[in-house]
Amino acid sequence: MTAKPAPGRDRFRLPLWGQRGTAGASIPAQLTFENIVQTYGGLNVLDGVSLTVRPGELVCLLGHSGCGKTTLLRIAAGVEAPTSGRVLMDGLEVSGPSAFVEPERRGIGLMFQDYALFPHMTVLQNVKFGLKDLSAKEADIAARRALSRVGLEHYAEEFPHTLSGGEQQRVALARSIAPRPGVLLMDEPFSNLDRRMRDAIRDETVAILRETKATTIVVTHDPEEAMRIADRIVLMRSGTIIQEGSSEEIYRRPVNLFAARFFCDFNEIPGEVRNGLAHCPVGVFPAPGLSDGPAVVCVRPQGVRLKPAGLCLPGRVVSRRFLGEVDLVHIDVAGVERPLQARVHDPVGAKPGQDVGIEIDPKDVLVFAAADA
Ligand SMILES: Nc1ncnc2c1ncn2[C@@H]1O[C@H](COP(=O)(O)OP(=O)(O)OP(=O)(O)O)[C@@H](O)[C@H]1O
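Above: the input record for the complex with adenosine-5'-triphosphate. Below: its predicted structure, written as tokens.
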């Protein structure tokens, strides 16, 4: 176990990332976590996390509350030192047994959920705050350029409390990109925005990040948000990475039931695997690679189709809700404890009490060993 860095311990100055001049595109850095362990009160909050974020890549750290996402960001930023393991930027150790680079010398930008704007400073002063290495004139130019990039140049002399939540978010973004960080770390940056404006601001933010080219890690607990913005999603659970990949890879081929449940509200039906096939009350489905034994058959609600009664698996409609683009229909099926959920475009006039036929699209079915649950 490595001790936390003590004052006077081997530190080195890093002109490399620390001073990138005025606003404009960043020189993206590669950020590497090597076997990071972080222990609080004898508990491993991070338990051997290894991850490389490529230059210019946008990675989303996704996981439930308390799984260690923020702790990993804090370690990357240098606000905390890991109990063991190393953090490297472009291959050079910035946290670890042989070095600890101060946060302000890492060239890492931070943006928090609450934006952390200073209320007594104008918008321009807030954005200039991180530009202390520049002359007053250079800082002014860089800050105004960052503000213009987020479309808020006209708000330079306003105070934060006079701005809407979405505008404050953009000021915080301008402040974090103004020093042209090689790496940008964002902790739940959209969670304070109401749903109506979140999608637009999220897309706008991603477009700005692409333009600035900074290597970016965004922490979120919202799978839809991660799918919407990430080049790569890193799914965490209890201080470990359980899967990483593109949103499509994780959605279509989750490594276990936990990962599957994160992205879809499945119908979960107990079944039995025999000779590579899962048998359950709604059908028989391929279960490649699974040993014989109890299983959970997971059926996506959009994979359940309604047909006229008598043609296929019989069911009886329990309820139907109009959700706009689809209807959510609950259907009782013999042998299945809870009604099946179906998200259907064509509910064939389904009314509560009506008998229907059910077809299940095998591409919307995943099977896991019951022990995995
Ligand atoms: N300084 C600390 N001292 C003790 N425990 C801590 C400290 N910082 C974090 N923890 C604990 O470590 C665990 C992980 O916290 P962390 O904030 O990294 O999780 P998270 O995934 O970011 O959660 P959230 O989405 O709620 O922010 C939590 O159980 C938290 O209580």
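Notes for the reader.
The chain is about 25% helix and 35% strand.
Residues 40, 45, 63, 65-71, 221 surround adenosine-5'-triphosphate (CB under 6 Å).
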